[in-house]
Design brief:
heterodimer, A: alpha+beta, Thrombin, subunit H, 2 domains, six-stranded antiparallel beta barrel, 12 strands, elongated, B: mainly alpha
Chain lengths: ~280, ~160
């Protein structure tokens, strides 16, 4: 009798203990989610404070990483430098030929070119921003924010007019830039062929992650080739037209599919860039 | 206890900075090592108290969320879950000769980090595989540092 009572007591105690543990766990989960919910009302100022505090250290780390990687990289790339040099020489000659052809067109259409240049490229107000960091989702952090007149959707370029992406999230003193290579990025482009007398071909550059992207939605009837240059088109109006995006490396053509794709290399070399420019007055 | 907490917070902060800036230049297929996760996992692996596990999860998750483009929360919740489950798994895999064997550490790190990345990005690709391998290298280093200095043998 006493033994049965004792056993029942132990069982009850064990059940109560288990219940208490579960209750503690549930309360803990509720408290955690409630705290996070409250914390998210202040997400902007919290992140902003952290970035202000981190900015100097991050800038130092970014520069140190850049210089050390280029120093180490020169050892690893030594064997491919000769080949790269040869490729650059060939490309330079091809570009010189293109420049000569463009100059003759420019002389013929000076007036039209001036109007186009005035409408599209001049008058852009640029804000220079220092690169602070890059995460593995192809999101770049820069040290300018709403306090500097930055807002979401603004195009981001470098001094050569190469498109890097657009402002994705803005905080008071810093911003997040979604790179062209981000998986959610889609940019309307024109394919400028090596033979400039041929018409331009429309397509889109889609981010592939890992600082890479590919060309898609090019009509199967169009002829695109490796080394063709990709520039932004004005179809969607997210970006000013004629910003450099990249060049085609390899074309994938399947007659069963309505569109052809191509592997591309982007002109935006994120890791070797310290400063970028945000176009603050481009209206969609 | 508080001294240990302070050191851990400073380390998490520094590692968050390093992985977002310095190691961005050393990316493979766009993947950078997740030093914060590696440190979090190694600390939790050697930690005995559940309170400290939760604390480490919250601190590491907070830094991961702050330096990401997301809202505050996803990493905190995921790391807390991973921390608690890891301790339960370690209890099941008790080893008499060695409380913290490397044969458990590496597979568990790979498994939990893969779960974390997949749940966070809802995808599984080459970048994630590279990121796991890359981060595992640093986690192994941290494992041997922790083991060498017996950081958690004497609980402060």
């Amino acid at each position: 009798m006493t033994y049965t009572k004792t056993m029942t007591g132990i069982k009850n105690f064990s059940i109560h203990k288990k219940k208490r543990t579960w209750l503690k766990f549930l309360i803990g989960v509720v408290v955690l989610f409630f705290a996070l919910w409250v914390l998210n009302f202040f997400v902007s100022p919290i992140k902003n404070v952290f970035y202000i505090l981190s900015s100097p250290i991050q800038k130092v780390f970014w520069s140190a990483g850049g210089s050390s990687s280029s120093f180490l990289g020169s050892f690893f790339r030594a064997s491919s430098l000769v080949k790269e040099n040869e490729n650059l020489r060939q490309e330079n000659q091809r570009l010189l030929a293109q420049v000569a052809a463009l100059q003759s067109i420019q002389q013929g259409n000076q007036a039209q070119s001036d109007v186009s240049a005035t409408c599209q490229n001049s008058g852009f107000k640029l804000v220079m921003a220092g690169v602070m960091g890059l995460d593995d989702n192809d999101i770049l952090s820069v040290n300018k924010g709403t306090a500097d007149g930055i807002s979401e959707g603004m195009p981001v370029i470098n001094q050569q007019g190469v498109l890097f992406g657009k402002v994705f999230k803005v905080y008071k003193n810093y911003s997040k830039i979604m790179l062209v290579s981000n998986k959610n990025s889609v940019v309307n482009v024109k394919v400028q062929q090596a033979d400039i007398s041929l018409p331009e071909i429309d397509g889109v550059v889609k981010g592939n992650g890992g600082l890479t992207a590919y060309l898609d939605l090019v009509s199967i009837a169009s002829s695109i080739n490796p080394q063709d240059i990709l520039v932004t088109s004005a179809i969607e109006k997210s970006f000013p037209k004629d910003l450099l995006v990249g060049k085609i490396n390899e074309v994938t053509k399947d007659d069963q599919k309505p569109f052809q794709q191509a592997k591309i290399s982007l002109f935006s070399e994120v890791t070797s860039t310290n400063n970028l420019f945000i176009i603050t007055n481009y209206k969609r | 206890m508080w001294k240990k907490c302070l050191i851990i917070v400073i380390l998490f902060y520094l590692f968050a900075q390093l992985q977002n800036s310095f190691f961005a230049h050393y990316n493979f297929f766009g993947a950078v090592p997740n030093l914060v996760f590696a440190l979090f996992f190694t600390s939790v692996f050697f930690e005995k108290k559940y309170f400290c596990v939760i604390l480490l999860s919250i601190i590491a998750g907070l830094f991961l969320d702050i330096f990401s483009y997301m809202q505050l929360g996803p990493s905190i919740v995921l790391l807390t879950g991973i921390g608690v489950v890891l301790k339960k798994v370690q209890q099941l895999l008790q080893n008499r000769q060695d409380n913290y064997p490397f044969t458990y550490f590496l597979p568990l790190f790979v498994l939990f980090f893969a779960i974390y990345l997949v749940l966070l990005s809802l995808s599984f690709d080459l970048r994630i595989i590279t990121s796991i391998i890359y981060s595992a290298v640093f986690a192994v280093l941290m494992f041997y540092i922790f083991k060498k200095f017996r950081v958690y043998d004497k609980q402060v």
